[in-house]
Amino acid sequence: MAKRVSTRKIKKHRLYGYDEAGGALGVTPHTVRDWRASGLEVMAATTPHYILGAELIRYIEDKQAKRSVKMALDQMYCLKCKAPRKPLWGMVDYIPTNDARGRLMGLCEACEGGLQRFVGKGDLGRFGQIYEITNKGVS
Ligand SMILES: [Zn+2]
Q1: Which of 21, 23, 121, 122 is the most exposed place for a label (fewest CB within 10 A)?
Q2: Which of 61, 53, 123, 63 is nearest to 94 (CA)?
Q3: How far apart are CA 97 and CA 116, in angstroms?
Q4: Can you give the pLDDT at residue 3?
Q5: What's the confidence (pLDDT) of residue 137?
Q6: What is the pLDDT of residues 72-108, one digit of tens each?
Q7: Cα(32)–Cα(109) distance, rounded to whole angstroms?
Q8: How far, in Å, is the centroid of ligand 1 from the Cα of 17?
Q9: What is the mean pLDDT of the chain?
Q10: Residue 107 C-alpha to ligand 1 middle, in angstroms?
Q11: Is 130 helix (H, G, I), strand (E, B) or coil?
């Protein structure tokens, strides 16, 4: 992302196609499609594909946060502090978004706001050595 993308025009509860998302963000639909490769969660089960507004915002904020601040393995992004933080008591929940990926969620040790970090299911072992992970929705 060369320029800073603003999420002001994105509505959290709306579903966006690639064209609409690009239009609202001021980027090309092709760019939005490319973001899938770097972690944007797209509802690919339906045709055409849709992206939830909240996910677009999450993805862009995450990306911008990563660009300015490098996150250590034991840090997660705090939406309130807008900075990488460690989870309170090292405890996080794993919430699967699909079979391969999910998000770790915890409480910020600084502000007790929500922390999150997108991880692949395959990374859970690695993160499990740092955090106490409560599996959710996984039997
Ligand atoms: Zn915080």
Answers
A1: 122
A2: 123
A3: 13
A4: 61
A5: 57
A6: 888 998 989 988 899 999 999 999 988 889 999 999 9
A7: 33
A8: 32
A9: 88
A10: 8
A11: coil
Cα of 96 from ligand 1 centre, angstroms: 23
pLDDT at 1: 42
SS (H, E, C) 45-113: CCCCCEEEHHHHHHHHHHHHHHHHCCCCCCCEEECCCCEEECEEEEEEEEEECCCCEEEEEEEECCCCC
Q: Which of 81, 131, 86, 72 is nearest to 111 (CA)?
A: 81
Backbone angles phi, psi at 24, to 5 degrees: -70, -25
The token pair that represents 22 in the structure block: 């690009």
Contact at 8 Å (CB) between 38 and 48?
no
> 69 CA to middle of ligand 1, Å?
15
